[in-house]
Amino acid sequence: LTAADGGYEVFVAGATAVSAKVYDLQGRPVTAVSGDSDTVTVATASLTPGIYILEATAADGQRFTRKITR
Asked: Whose CA is closest to 7, among 70, 55, 53, 65?
């Protein structure tokens, strides 16, 4: 997970597809993105400043969550 201009870049080594979802602290989904490569970019510029949870899942089932800020 790398901060990118206006969002975050999610990279999962060896993945053929990746999906990422962002949730607010109440557990409500606020944005989602998916792609057919090992990297997706999650735009967060439109989100209200605060703390969020990013959950990424690869096609092979690898999964991780991270706290992010906007």
From this structure: 70
Q: What is the DSSP string of 28-57?
A: -EEEEEEESSSEEEEE-TTSPSSEEEEEEE
Residues 6+ apart with CB under 8 A from 19: 32, 33, 34, 35, 40, 56, 57
Tokens of 65: 């969550």
Inter-residue contact 10 to 1 (CB < 8 Å): yes
Residues of the chain below pLDDT 50: none
CB-CB contact of 63 with 33 (8 Å):
no
User: Percentages helix, strand, coil for the chain, rounded to the nearest 5?
Assistant: 0, 60, 40
Residue 5: the pLDDT is 87
